[in-house]
Amino acid sequence: MQPKSNYSALARIVPVVLSFATAMVLAVVALPESISNLRPDFVALVLIFWCLYHPGRVGLLVAFTIGLLADTMYFGILGQHAISKVVIAYVILRFLSDSDLKDRVVQQSVIVLLLLLSNVLILTVISRLVHGQSGSYLVWLTPFVGAMMWYLFALFRRKRTPRRYGIYQ
Prior knowledge:
By secondary structure, the protein is mainly alpha-helical. The protein has a single domain, classed as Arp2/3 complex 21 kDa subunit ARPC3, CATH 1.10.1760. Helix content is about 70%, strand content about 0%. It is globular, with a radius of gyration of 17 Å. It starts with a helix and ends with a strand.
């Protein structure tokens, strides 16, 4: 009996770790200059996915840890991304985890847009307070790109996921 529970715990952790690792690679992969400013925050999108669809697997501690890893990855202010990721996770886990959003693709996309805008706002405010600069205005386009990507992802997931007991598993 004991090996089965270890396997199931490992089977629950591996997809989370792999998805965050993939998001971090996508966040730093080189892109052409013309589209590099439109890259959404893939780490935030993956965090939103896990908090919204599987709130038991990812919580505030994981969001904080992933945010600290993002801070070291971007060579930024230590804690800047950690705060923004914890805010995202808190809002989802506190207010949205019990809601019936799993079928509503448009509402999900709007919520993702608002969460990504709050992410950019937090990062911009902290950068402005510490460095006295706010960066490029193009950073405000990335939440819209992320929300469009989320819409396409949610449509794809909705078509591919079988219905069980009236909800998506």
